[in-house]
Design brief:
Layout lengths: L1 H13 L15 H35 L12 H15 L3 H26 L3 H25 L5 H10 L7 H20 L1 H7 L3 H6 L4 H23 L5 H13 L3 H23 L9 H25 L1
Helix pairs in contact: 1-12, 2-7, 2-10, 2-11, 2-12, 3-4, 3-5, 3-6, 3-10, 4-5, 4-10, 7-10, 8-12, 11-12, 11-13, 12-13
Length: about 325
């Protein structure tokens, strides 16, 4: 875990001085100070919070569903949030309206998934199938909204938001979604022992006295809350929630008492690093979702390949 702490501190301290406009940390002009305090610091804080939140959501789903490839988009929360943001862009285009609409529709999506899973069956498989169906439904609605959008005004905004970005984020935007993200992160950090038990089979968990149904609902609610708020703040950010827990397992193993905080630190560091790349490698800002995919996909392949070689060895 010490490695994860040092990695996060290093990336967090370097990030304020990374960007197309370079300035020295030792000689700050009034303009440099304004850029640092009003533009870069809120963006860096948001990146760290969203990265930690998505990583913990991915880790939680991997334990609850006992599937190492489960990610934050499993239950349709991300697609629901995307549809909420698109609707707000078409109707208002206010940053606060977009955030609130994305957050509300993300929560609506997970409620629909929960109700639908109880209707078609009772168990993890029903929940996953309902999540896939709801995700596809909201994705189709997003596609339909893009088809109807004005190609010269609304459509570019929709596409840019869907690709993910922290550009233009200010302290006011963070305050709007800070509470649900903090509740999500804190809740998972405090429930590390039940999360350990949830990774066992349902029969084993029950034999240890755990109310599996209650904790499953609680973990899903905490994760959905964080995913909705994160998507509302940054758009659709892929791979971070899937890859970060696997990197953390390589560092500290599978014990969630240590794995949970390590995953949060790894997720925060990874998203900070991706955001640094997005705003510094070109004369224009790259979409954050593109950067996370370009980095996350090969990293996941390497992790899975390493595990296979380790098993064979």
């Amino acid at each position: 875990m010490k490695k994860a702490v040092w990695l996060f501190l290093l990336v967090f301290l370097v990030s304020p001085f990374v960007g197309r406009l370079y300035f020295s940390p030792f000689t700050l002009s009034p303009l440099d100070r304004t850029i640092l305090l009003e533009i870069r610091l809120p963006r860096i804080l948001a990146s760290a919070l969203v990265g930690a939140c998505l990583s913990l959501a991915g880790l939680t789903f991997q334990n609850v569903f006992r599937n190492p490839l489960a990610g934050p988009n499993l239950l349709g929360v991300t697609s629901g949030s995307a549809f909420g943001a698109v609707i707000a862009i078409l109707l208002a285009q206010s940053p606060y309206a977009i955030q609130l609409s994305a957050f509300v529709f993300g929560l609506i999506a997970v409620v629909i998934v929960w109700k639908l899973s109880r209707f078609i069956g009772d168990g993890l498989l029903s929940l996953i199938l309902a999540g896939i169906a709801v995700s596809a439904f909201f994705s189709a609605l997003v596609g339909f909204a893009k088809y109807l959008a004005d190609p010269y005004d609304k459509l570019p905004t929709i596409v840019f938001w869907l690709l993910g970005s922290f550009a233009g984020l200010r302290w006011e935007s963070i305050k709007l979604m800070l509470a649900p993200i903090v509740v999500s992160i804190t809740g998972v950090l405090l429930l590390r022992w039940p999360l350990n038990v949830m990774s066992l089979s349902e029969e084993e968990a029950k034999s240890l006295g755990l109310n599996v149904r209650f904790y499953r609902a609680l973990f899903i609610a905490l994760s959905a809350l964080g995913i909705s708020a994160s998507t509302a703040m940054a758009g659709m950010i892929g791979w971070v929630g899937l890859v970060s827990p696997h990197i953390a397992r390589l560092l500290v193993g599978h014990d969630n008492r240590v794995l949970v905080p390590t995953s949060a630190l790894v997720g925060a560091s990874l998203l900070l690093l991706c955001d640094d790349i997005a705003r510094s490698v070109a004369t224009f800002e790259l979409p954050l979702g593109v950067v996370t995919s370009l980095i996350g996909a090969p990293v996941l392949v390497l992790i899975l390949a390493r595990r296979r070689w380790h098993v064979k060895g």
